[in-house]
Amino acid sequence: MAGKPKKLRCAYKYCRHQTHDIEPGTEIERSGKLYHPDCLHEQETIEQIIDVFYKQVNPDVVFWQLRKVINKLVYEEGFEAEYILFAIRRHLEQGKPLTYPAGIAYIVQNRQMKAAFEAQRHSTIQVKPVLSGESPEQTFEYRPAPKRTLDSLFQ
Predict the structure, then answer these.
(1) What is the pLDDT of residue 52?
(2) In whole angstroms, what is the distance from residue 58 CA to residue 54 CA?
(3) Coil, strand or helix: which one is 22?
(4) Residue 71 CB neighbours (<10 A)
C-alpha cells in the first residue's frame, strides 16, 4: 500500500511563507533540518549580525537582549536582516559609537543609512548568462540621472 509522499516542512521558526511546506528540490539541509533558501539566508544573516556585535561592538552584552532587539526589528518592524547587518557595519566603519543593542534601532531608522543601502544594493546587479559557458559574467551598473535644478532649465 503506497502512502502519501512525505511533506517537507521548513524548520525556521519565523518562516514567512504562507504554509511551511517546501517544494521538493528547493529545500536546503543544514544540521539535519530542512529550510527554504530565503529562510536559511535570513537565519544566517541574523547569526552574522550577532557575531559582528559580539566581536566588534560589545562582547559582554546579554545574548537575549541582543536577540530580542534583532527579532523586533526584523519580524515586527519589517527591516531586512541584510539591511541591519549593512547598517551596523557602516556605522562602525564611520567610527561612530555603538555600545548597546537598543542602539541598533536608531541606526536602522536613519534616512541616510537607508539611502546608502539602496544605493549599494542597486549599484551592481549581477546578470547571469542565459546559456552557461557561452558568455562571461556581466555586470550592470546603475547610475542615477543628475538632479535637475531650476538653473539647469535656463541653460
Answers:
(1) 92
(2) 5
(3) strand
(4) 14
Structural domain includes residue 81? yes
pTM, entire model:
0.71
Domain containing residue 77: 10-127
CB 89 within 8 A of CB 83: no
Torsion, Cα 30 34 37 41, to 10 degrees, reads: -50
The answer to whether residue 50 scores a pLDDT higher than 70 is: yes
Position 146 in a domain:
no
DSSP assignment letter at 54: I
Query: Is 152 domain-assigned?
Result: no
Q: Which amino acid is at 150?
A: L
Average pLDDT of the segment spanning 73-101: 91
Written as nine digits, the cell of 1 is 500500500
107, part of any domain: yes
CA atoms within 13 A on the CB side of 151: 2
Task: Reply yes or no on whether the pLDDT at 155 is more than 50.
Answer: yes
Q: CB–CB of 54/64 below 8 Å?
A: no
What is the rounded CA–CA span in Å between residue 35 and residue 17?
Answer: 11
Total count of domains within the chain: 1
